[in-house]
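In response to reviewer comment 3 from the previous cycle, which asked for concrete evidence that the modeling workflow produces usable outputs, we include below a single protein chain processed end to end. The sequence was submitted unchanged, and the resulting structure tokens are shown without manual editing.
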Amino acid sequence: LYLVFHGPCRLVGSKFCFVMHSFALHCYAHTLWSLLFSFSYRFYVLKRTPPKNGVIVAIILVMYLPSLLQFISFCFANEKEAELKVLIKENFGYDVYSECVGGSKNILSWRSLPAILHMSLSVTPIYIAIHVLRKLTISLLDMGLVMSENNRRIHSQLLQALTVQACLPAFFLLAVIVYAIEQLDIIRHPLLEYSCFILIGLIPVLSPLTSFLFIRPYNKWIRETLFRSHKVSSSIKVSTIASTARISDLNVML
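The workflow returned the following structure tokens.
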């Protein structure tokens, strides 16, 4: 597993770049667990009383442990930069002697394998579980549970956001497939080398946008604060009132 780093981290060194890369990977992996928790919580509170904050925090910490252990173990997987540059030149023909390089010569070592297995094998069962919970949640909402109209509207908005977010792990799955194709030496191409991380990077980019689009308080704040839609509508109302007043004055004069 060889990595060529770009960006400001090069000013510090390859070890720092590799640690930052490991941190990013563990965030990507934890994104899947966070989505699973979001769907599980939404399904749970439809039928039961919401758990206490302490219980929620404990569950979140437990679900974070696999990603944390991945981060800790993978941080030690980086090997000597000079040796990696020689291997990259021999195996791929890339001249990277002037680049910042990191990676591992043996992905089956205890430092690399846990991270690879966690990111590769967890995505499919989590993806299936998310869609099962989504279907169960929709069926409960369609059954006509006793809840106020406001709560039903809020649940519907959250479900729309979570439904779109449920499609995001597909990018993760595609990235895993691309990585497997490269790692198993089925196809080798620079486009595949770059697309693996580009696909994963789309998840943290698109995930916040779903909340901004479908959750009304966020959507309203963006429209009023960033796009000034509230102020524009107010000015239109003032202009309309002023125009009406002028017409009334003319009628009085006539």
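The CA atoms of residues 89 and 95 lie 6 Å apart. We consider this sufficient to address the reviewer's concern, and the full set will be provided in the supplementary archive.
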